[in-house]
Amino acid sequence: MPSVDSQNQKTFTYPRSALERAERALVCSPFNPCLFETMRSRRVALSEMTANSGVQNGYTKRPISELAADNALVWLIQVGVLRREVDGQGITDSFRLTPLGRQIVEQFQRKPWRTPTLSDNLYNTVIHWLRLPF
In whole angstroms, what separates CA 93 from the centre of its chain? Predict the structure, then answer.
């Protein structure tokens, strides 16, 4: 199984199915690779990803509403790619990559970000809608 070294040098090992599901969720999301590259180094607020600012920042393929962006981000959290940032007063509207997300994004630095196939989109939609854990 592949592993990843995070910034604190802990090694995480993920099953192939988790890696495939995470990759599929990323490429099927309404977000551009630029967003995930930015999340490698800093948190990104929801307001930076929505409406025209999302397109201007290069984070989205088209303007999307806050609700649509939040739904897509929550799916990426459930898949294990993202996490919400927390400050001293609780959960914020900012997001960051998890170690699994970091590993997937780093893999895409070595090879081009692939275009999702029809079967990728269909499979991702079905498991997202049903919230299946595979």
Answer: 15
Residue matched to tokens 């962006």: 69
Q: Look up the pTM and report it.
A: 0.83
**CATH classification of the domain holding 23:** 1.10.10.10
The structure tokens listed for 46 are 């929801």
With a cut of 50, which residues of the chain have pLDDT below it? 1, 4-6
Domain extent at residue 34: 16-109
Residue 77 in domain? yes
CA atoms within 13 A on the CB side of 36: 28
Cα(66)–Cα(69) distance, rounded to whole angstroms? 5
Measured CA to CA, the distance from residue 106 to residue 69 in angstroms comes to 23
